[in-house]
Specification:
By secondary structure, the protein is mostly helical. The chain has a single domain, classed as MYOD Basic-Helix-Loop-Helix Domain, subunit B (Irregular). It has five helices and no strands. α2 packs across α4. The termini are far apart. Pfam families: bHLH_ILI.
Length: 86
């Protein structure tokens, strides 16, 4: 089992590289002037960003559901929406 653990272990350099990549992806951190951000802050902001994305998706899904309920399913609008969703 010890050989299995050592193969799956991530080095400090790999962790630093992954945190750096996350830092570049998260707008809240990327837009800061300072390049010095702790790994814990990057991870915290990443979690916040993902939560916000989930809320946005939920809101957009709700709006789409309302839109689909308000239009005639045989209309041209419904056909366009269906084609966009596929």
């Amino acid at each position: 089992m010890s050989s299995r653990r050592s193969r799956s272990r991530i080095s400090d350099d790999q962790i630093a590289d992954l945190v750096s990549k996350l830092q570049q992806l998260i707008p809240e951190i990327r837009n800061r002037r300072s390049d010095k951000v702790s790994a814990s802050k990057v991870l915290q902001e990443t979690c916040n960003y993902i939560r916000n994305l989930h809320r946005e998706v939920d809101g957009l899904s709700e709006r789409l559901s309302q839109l689909l309920e308000s239009i005639d399913s045989d209309s041209a609008q419904a056909a366009i929406i269906r084609s966009l969703l596929m």
